[in-house]
């Protein structure tokens, strides 16, 4: 497996492999690879020699037929196969017949004048499948997994510097928090910030005003209030979420998920797992693990367990009774503050 940086450098030098597998969920880097490859083809040839095929819309055979065609008024063809879900264990309701043997045959004997790129925006593939094994043996596999928080910081600061902008340290922290340190999410927010930044300086006020908080982030604040056993403020935030028309079951499900993550992180950390190992084991973004580790250093496992069990009881009541969600949450908070778990 090679890095995105290496592939970009190779393409820059016109050293392109016959087959690439770009594996991972980082959309920004996937787009960089795509555009770098396209830029390597003369503009007048692109319409005739570049094909892009979505496997949820067209058959694999159609894409491979293009890959096996000779270039039209040029030396190379470039074919992208997007969303090859058949490489994963996912079950898709797509009524298309994909001939995987045809793909296996192609990667074992690729067309020398074609660059075939499998754009796989997935965390992992189904390693048991013959087609996956063959592709990993024959193709250049590009590691396009989400960047670490440190790498995201470095990338963002470098991009801002290149554009002549700076960002206040506190504003940077808020931006990372509200985007979960996800490069793709930051890329979506950045144009707005650049537009409103006076004197090319991005401030706390601008990030706070322009980058909205997700339900998950509001619930993350709620987790903090629950653990602090601050019943009044927790209830106030819970009411705010209900007034924003958020579904009680959805709020509760996210709360459950947050406490489950905290418990898992705390247990793995106690067993000697480092932050990166925990993230890969639980298949969550390293930044979420970092925030969870900060909390597990302060709060006891028993408190995490009590809260998690209490939230399961709330879920049961929400599904089986007509009790008001706000009342259920209030009872949960009162009982949790007394270290009870029954609502």
Q: Would you kindly provide a written description of the structure presented here, covering whatever features stand out?
A:
The chain is α/β, with parallel strands linked by helices and 343 residues long. It folds into three domains: 2-143, P-loop containing nucleotide triphosphate hydrolases (Rossmann fold, 3-Layer(aba) Sandwich), CATH 3.40.50.300; 149-210, Helicase, Ruva Protein, domain 3 (Orthogonal Bundle); 215-337, Zinc Finger, Delta Prime, domain 3 (Up-down Bundle), CATH 1.20.272. Helix content is 59%, strand content 10%. It contains 17 helices and eight strands. The radius of gyration is 24 Å and the shape is globular. It starts with a strand and ends in a 6-residue tail after the last helix.
Largest sheet: 6 strands, parallel
Number of helices: 17
The CATH topology annotation of the largest domain reads as Rossmann fold
As laid out across the biggest beta sheet, the strand order is 1-6-2-5-4-3
The proportion of strand residues reads 5-15%
Radius of gyration: 24 Å
Low-confidence stretches: none
How many β-strands, per DSSP?
8
The first-level CATH class of the largest domain is given as Alpha Beta
SSE arrangement, N to C: EHEHHEHEHEHEHEHHEHHHHHHHH
* Total number of domains: 3
> Residue share in helices?
55-70%
Distance between the termini: 50 Å
Global geometry = globular
Q: Do you know the CATH architecture of the largest domain?
A: 3-Layer(aba) Sandwich
CATH superfamily of the largest domain: P-loop containing nucleotide triphosphate hydrolases
Mean pLDDT figure: 92
Q: What structural class do the secondary elements suggest? A: alpha/beta
Enzyme class: transferase
Catalytic activity: DNA(n) + a 2'-deoxyribonucleoside 5'-triphosphate = DNA(n+1) + diphosphate
GO molecular function: DNA binding; DNA-directed DNA polymerase activity
Domain DNA polymerase III delta subunit-like C-terminal: 216-336
